[in-house]
Target: GOLD domain-containing protein
Amino acid sequence: MAKRAPASLGTALQLIAVLLTSDFMAEEVEGIWMNLPASGTKCVSEEIHHNKIVVADYMIVSEDPYNGPTISIKVTSPFGNNLHQMDNVTHGHFSFTSAEAGTYVACLWIDNQNPGVGTIVNLEWKIGITARDWESVARKENIEGVELELRKLEGAVDAIHGNLLYLRSREAEMRTVSERTNARVAWFSIMSLGVCIVASCLQLWHLKRFFRKKKII
Model:
């Protein structure tokens, strides 16, 4: 029994790590198939938190990619900074660490202007813990088995904690905006009521003056 305990512990840790990392892989790995027309641009956006590792691969899905159309791609940050740009390619790869939180945009278009010729592009995003190369981490730090699973589990917990902090900050921002909006609506209602009261008093004063001039009252 004592000899089987470490194996049971390792199995349990592996199961927990797989469950946690699988949830994040479902949320933070996004594969997109895009139908690019012969002319025009298609863009895909992703909301990414601050200081997140982003890795992406893209390629043309074609039976003969060497004789088909080529594409151009441009990736920009929420502030409009150019993070990646390539022209006349059939496949590629880019990676970056998000410097600010917000919506990151990747736009793709076909270079060749052959009439009626479009193509399909596969774009795969990996964000956060799913973007890490765990094999390289294991080789670099000389860890394996339970230790590696513990590192994955630690990364998943850190990612969960980061997401909770992000959601808390977004909730605080939304609450602040809601409170400011409610205050502005309240002041606007008070001002509208005051204007209505002043207008009514002026109208009564005008009517009273008019009737007195006509000697009606």
